[in-house]
Amino acid sequence: MHYGLLLSNSKLGLELQSGAFCISFETICNSISKKYNSVGPKMIETLQWESLKKDLLAVFNNSKLTKEAKQFGINKINNLNQPTNKDKLTLPFKEVGYKLNLSEIKVINDRNLFLHGNLNVKDSENEIDKLFYTSIMLHRLCCTLILKMCAFDGHIINNIILYSPNTNVDTNEWGFKKI
To answer: Which H or E run contains 68?
Structure first.
């Protein structure tokens, strides 16, 4: 796995940390999925999808679009029934035996929005606080996966609580997190 990237992310400025942790997180998740040969669920059952895909491909193949436009549409159709990003990024936690809580799932969902240019800041939230919280949470998720891959079963320091005065996030978590 790519632990060096995770370690070097903490040295980056806050405006870069969240993005770098997003990359580290996805890299670690992909490595675990490969190790366990796991693939997230498809949205449409395979037999139904094959029938539907055949009909959709026929629309492009029989159209008067340019060759490039047809190929573009065909490529999109061929990738339509892939697992969602959320599924791809939560599956590794199931593989290592860790149950995500609601705030962790929310950060995984926010990560996808963040990578597409939306910080998902609510009216009562400060952008810097949100960036800092997201960075801390993504770091925790990365470390949780790495430690669980090493068969760790115990408590870690919960930086969410340690830095809570700087994130302005209310939480009912404790200073140590059982993983």
So the answer is: helix 67-78
